[in-house]
Design goal:
The protein has 121 residues and is mainly α. Helix content is 64%, strand content 0%.
């Protein structure tokens, strides 16, 4: 994963005072290696397309030049929000693919589950 892709994903689920565990704190790098090895080809292609849209299209949706890594953290978050709430169906769906795959990793982290009050088995 390159720095541009990482910047997009960090903007999706950043660490902050309300939730000190960000996506990469939850082990996304390791998850992504397993995902690339085990996910179906369609899911891998969809996730790659979603990352591309996050890096190169999302900044355009807020009137900034891409890539997303050029933007300040707050603008990155605005760009990601613009992607997932776009009026263009395909962009909105790519944003949802990105969120879904990131959430597979994030929601599995015990610290995140504890922070949101998820019941223990």
């Amino acid at each position: 994963m390159n720095a541009r892709q990482r910047a997009a994903l960090e903007a999706l689920l950043p660490a902050d005072p309300a939730m000190p565990v960000g996506l990469f704190d939850a082990g996304f790098s390791e998850f992504y290696a397993r995902f690339r090895a085990e996910a179906s080809p369609g899911m891998r292609v969809g996730f790659s397309a979603a990352l591309w849209a996050a890096v190169w299209v999302a900044p355009l949706l807020i009137g900034s030049l891409p890539p997303i890594s050029r933007l300040a953290p707050d603008d990155r978050e605005r760009a990601m929000e613009a992607l997932v709430s776009s009026r263009v169906y395909a962009l909105r769906q790519l944003g949802l693919v990105l969120k879904a795959v990131a959430s597979f990793c994030y929601g599995a982290d015990p610290r995140v589950r504890d922070a949101i009050g998820f019941p223990k088995p």
